[in-house]
Amino acid sequence: MTPSASAATPLSLWVVAACFNEAAGIEAFIGAIEALGLVEQLLLIDDGSRDGTAAVVRRDIEARRQQPQAMPVSLIELTRNFGKEAAMLAGLDQARGRCDAVVLIDADLQHPPELIPEMVRHWQNGAEMVTAIRSPEDQESRLKIISASGFYSLFNRLTDSVQLVDGAGDFRLLSQPVVRALTDMREGTRFSKALFPWTGFESVDISYDRPPRSSGASTWNVRRLFSYALDGIFSFSVLPLRIWIAVGTVISLISLVYALVLVISTLLHGIDVPGYASLIVAVLFLGGVQLIGIGILGEYIGRIFEESKRRPPYLVRRISASASSDRQGEA
Ligand code: UDP
Ligand code: MG
To answer: How far is the CA of 283 from the centre of ligand 1 (A)?
Structure first.
């Protein structure tokens, strides 16, 4: 995308938002995107909401069909809750090859739409990707901030291929080449936070303050965040497997030295029967170390198992659109 191209033909920008139980706030969200006046199409993915989000959007789409001037809105309804990662992928799959850029955004207005014009300006100046980075001093609890920064430094130490930036999430503008790259990656356990930088496309970073949710509740609890963090590490690093070579080597060397000490002391002092304490400590310690090693192997094998089934990442129940799109997508 060159800046001169933008002067000749208007650039086509899609906004893609995954929605899960957003019925109360979704109309305000659609209104906020429409008010920008820059968006060619708003694509919402209903990720199996149970509060009638899809029905609210369908009604909105129906009303838009009567108003040719209104911003086109489309809705992809997934058959169940597949999770935000899968829902975003469903949106990007639709947008592939059909627009010049996509803005990924949360539907709960925690990603301020007012930032989109600034993102578009950077894109028109040639940015391949624009990332909105959330300022650290916003609403989150201290515990969440500390655990998040701990995770980022651990992740960055374990992986060579990508570096994560604290506060950089899914609120991004992606030019079409980035959309293609992301939709080419069909891994089952998606960890988008790291997939974006993995593509290697350069990002221009801007920062924002994250407001509280407009309505509804976040679905991210401690357990889900922990398992998401593990997904990130295990899908981007094999270092946890390699560690066991080092652990095993160190323990073997220590055992060898200890064996020599035992042999020599037996030769010098004869057989020394009491030894229960050292024996039980060694047995328990080694047992624990082996179980941790097996557990880590299990994490990777479980992921290989999940990938090997090659199930589709999401299933679509229906697609509704207020206007037909003239550009063909591609597989
Ligand atoms: N979301 C989704 N599927 C899910 C959970 C969340 O599509 O299973 C959407 C949700 O509707 C919102 C975005 O993902 O637009 C971010 O979710 P949430 O606000 O719960 O996360 P947080 O803002 O706390 O990170
Ligand atoms: Mg949110």
So the answer is: 46
**301: Cβ contacts below 8 Å, ≥ 6 apart:** none
The pairing of beta strand 101-104 with beta strand 13-19? parallel
Secondary structure (3-state) at 1: coil
Residue with CA nearest ligand 1 atom 21: 218
For residue 129, give both structure tokens. 């990707």
Which residues sit with Cβ closer than 5 angstroms to ligand 2, an ion? Answer: 106, 108, 110
pLDDT tens for each residue of 68-80: 899 999 999 999 9
CATH class of this structure's domain 13-236+313-321: alpha beta
- pLDDT of residue 1 exceeding 70, the answer is no
Task: Point out the ligand nearest to the CA of residue 86.
Answer: 1
What is the pLDDT confidence band of residue 168, given thresholds at 50, 70 and 90? very high
Q: Is the per-residue pLDDT at 4 higher than 50?
A: no
Evaluate: CB of 84 within 6 angstroms of ligand 1: yes
Q: What is the DSSP string of 274-301?
A: --HHHHHHHHHHHHHHHHHHHHHHHHHH
Cα(198) to ligand 1 centroid in Å equals 23
Please name which of 173, 160, 238, 163 lies closest in space to residue 203, comparing C-alpha atoms: 173
Distance CA 309, CA 301 (A): 13
Question: Cβ(77) to ligand 1 under 6 A?
Answer: no
Query: What does the domain layout of the chain look like in residue ranges?
Result: 13-236+313-321, 239-309
Is residue 287's pLDDT more than 70?
Answer: yes
Q: What does pTM read for this prediction?
A: 0.87
Q: Is the CB of 47 under 6 A from ligand 1?
A: yes
What mean pLDDT do residues 38-53 have? 97
